[in-house]
Amino acid sequence: MTSINCITLKASSTAKTDITIVVHDQRTNQQPTLGFSIKSQLGSPSTLLNAGKTTNFIYKINGKLN
Q1: 19-32 pLDDT tens trace
Q2: According to the model, what pLDDT value does residue 48 have?
Q3: What's the pLDDT band for 40 if we cut at 50, 70, 90?
Q4: Which DSSP string do the residues of 1-66 spell out, in sequence order?
């Protein structure tokens, strides 16, 4: 891990990406930096949806409420 500058296995809660990769595209001669999120069971169980201030659901309840 030290040889690839990996000092922790888990990104901070404020980080949007877990791993960042620079892609060398020979066709376009560009080198974009891309970030990826890795879901794992390393810490807490991963969630399908991370609820936050920007999470917005609109739903309809069908049927009688007693």
Answers
A1: 889 999 999 999 99
A2: 64
A3: low
A4: -GGGT---SS--TT-S-SEEEE--BTTTTB--EEEE----SSSSPP-S----TT--------S---
18 close to 36: Cβ distance less than 8 angstroms? yes
What is the domain count for the chain? 1
Q: In one letter, which amino acid is 37?
A: S
Q: Encoding tokens for residue 27?
A: 């066709």
Residue 19's DSSP bridge partners are 36
CA geometry: angle 56, 37, 23, nearest 5 deg: 125
Q: Look at phi and psi of residue 53 and say left if phi exceeds 0, alpha if psi is from -120 to 50, else beta.
A: alpha
Residue 7 structural domain: 1-38
